[in-house]
Amino acid sequence: MNPAEEILDIVDARDRVLGQAPRGEVYARRLRHRCVFVLATAPDGRVFVHRRAATKMTFAGYYDMFVGGVVGTGESYEQAALREAEEELGVSGLPQPAPALKFLYEAPEDTADTARGGGGEAGEAGPFGWWSWVYQVPLTLPVRPQAEEIDWHGFLTEEEIDARLGDRDWTPDSLAAYALLKSWRAKERG
């Protein structure tokens, strides 16, 4: 299926479903929808990091420390997290990713230009953004990332990621999710 034709739930500021629309329309009209971020870590704690393929609908060629994507209509966040992680990593049999936190990402006004190379009008569901659940999953399987999704990948320590945050184009929503996850972990530790 063409990704632009995938049907997504349109949600409000409280994550209540208002209706459905194809992904291409959701992006073009800047409608609020749902998304998942999955931090995949190797047994030694290094994080799966990748550069998004040049053909992606949003943030093509940007770096990302999460795998994930949109939640399809009628799909739960949990289902989307496992599906997206297995698809993008090119594996099957992952454990169910563990939920960490939920947040509403409000995209900057220029996101349409940065993400898709074109403008967009304000959506009826409110400012452009997406309700996002952040998950974590351990990797014990070798990965075979989807070529359609990922141009490059590697495993980096969090210190190596932090050192590279200023010298590469990272997806802005993942930067927000990463900062929130680090803060959440610090609170969980005590």
From TrEMBL:
Superkingdom, taxonomy of origin: Bacteria
Pfam families according to UniProt: NUDIX (PF00293)
Domain Nudix hydrolase: 31-188
GO terms, molecular function: hydrolase activity, acting on acid anhydrides; metal ion binding
Binding site for Mg(2+): 84, 88
SUPFAM superfamilies membership: Nudix (SSF55811)
Signal peptide: none
Keywords: Hydrolase, Magnesium, Metal-binding
Cofactor(s) named in the record: Mg(2+)
PANTHER family, per database record: ISOPENTENYL-DIPHOSPHATE DELTA-ISOMERASE
Similarity comment text for this entry: Belongs to the Nudix hydrolase family.
Protein name as annotated: NTP pyrophosphohydrolase
Species whose genome carries this gene: Streptomyces albus (strain ATCC 21838 / DSM 41398 / FERM P-419 / JCM 4703 / NBRC 107858)
